[in-house]
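## retry 2 of 3
previous attempt timed out at serialization; input unchanged, resubmitting
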Amino acid sequence: MDSNRKYNKIRIGLAVFAALLLGRLFYIQIINDKFKTDALNNSIVYETIYPPRGVIYDRSGEVLVGNQATYDILVTPREISSLDTLALARILGIEPDLVREKLDYYRTYRTRIGFKTLVFLKHVDEDVYMRFSEVEYRFPGFRGQIRTERMYPFNAGGNLLGYVSEVDADYIRKHPEYKGGDNVGRTGLEAARETDLRGEKGYHIYLRDSRNRVLTSYNDGEDDKLAVPGRDIHTTIDAHLQQYGQQLMKGRKGSLIAIEPSSGEILALVSSPGIDVDVLANMGSNYDKLMSDPGKPLFNRTVQASYPPGSVFKLVCGLIGMQEGVLSPSMRYGCSRGYVYAPGKKLGCHEHRSPLSFSEAVRMSCNAYFCNVFKNVLENKQYSSTAEAFDKWASYVRAFGFGSKLGTDYPGELGGTIPSSSYYDKIYGKGHWRFSSVVSLSIGQGEIGATPLQIANLAAILANRGWYITPHLLSDTEAERHETGIERKYFEPAIEGMYEAVNMTVADGATATLARVRGLDICGKTGTAQNPHGDDHSVFVCFAPRENPQIAVAAYIENGGWGGSTAAPIASLLIEQYLNGEVAPEREWLREWIKVKE
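## retry succeeded, writing output
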């Protein structure tokens, strides 16, 4: 009885196993094509379809970065059975020795290469590609491929746009979703918006015969996958203004930035010297040259350089003084070619009449005036110590966007530097430092470091009378509004001084007369930032028109000297071009005058 029961269990088990096996075979052979496809692998060709990257547009819909077709010849070395070297070289228009050299390389590194497909020739002419396509079946292991590469209708914004290049082994190791032959955005907007721009690859599956000739689509194309084009992005950049700004900065080191104050949209972002867009499309062969260039064209000065802001920072100190109640617009201070802040120590100033009110001090850029203001801020009796007053001052400065990243949507932004009281405690000892220890901060020198974008943001704050929208480059960015904590009424005397600096005469002490443009009511402030490594840096911030400003600009010219001589005319030409659409004939001489003499 027990043996019969045991025998029945075995029979049932075998029946169940047989049923499962038959079911699996039915699924494999009838339902699921995957295993049939695998069985046909020797006669199947997968051809990758690379999607076009998304197009990058300027604020008016003009193309900054587009795509154009490019043709490559690929090779899978393990599939090469025999090869007519001379015939292949003749069809591709290359020397036979080049073919032999590549074949030797494939043989030498066959283990490392494995079954990978490599680029045999890149960027072949269209007629060469078509000629090869007609006889591709004669060369097992070789095939053609059409893909797109970047093209640039405007020579504008090489640094801000960034470049695309093929991924290497190290990149693939860190980003396994990429494969050999894929491209990726490396810098600028191409990198920042890589996920949107790259799209999604597809493929065609073909059947081929024993002679490597493609016969037909596999399964009537049912298993093909269409490529998904990258998503287009729209920037806030004005392509024509960006291009013009680059022309103005040609031959110079520095930055030129324009912002629409009401929106925080960046109109132009010029880092000079920069990358010419012609170089971007073929970055692989130009990278080493750019890296060794002493001008550092790969270094984006607009968001990565940290400079002393110089005298444009006096506006911040003055506004803080009024908000703190230690300065009124009518308050006058004298100047005798500088300010004596300790026995035998004097912070110098240029010759001008004295004493001055606040607006006059802005117009004439008086160092002594703002030393007095800063002294009153730090010795304000409502605070228990210099350190406490200093930290309050520093909090205002940070509210202007200095000392930390602004949070722009452009990659690589640095934050600059604003010292704290604890910093000076470490240097001088707690309670052992006073205003005289930090006097240089009053004129934008000393331990202050600011990026050109932060300085341009200051120009936007002045235009808006006390607030700013986070500067941004992409139209879909949700930018935040920030308040400085300075009442609007205090900005009017500062702006009056800026207006006078541009629109009054040299005899009146105006420091930025080269920035005057008839009918535009430009308001500006010059700055000359001391540079221990050479000539001083030339700085200028401005906006226009005075009422309902449309554009705010900062020009920072390394080794440019006095702010009114270099940065001011460059910034004003950019404003004039933007607001008027051209530079007036009577000001054309200025454009020639600022050109760097070669």
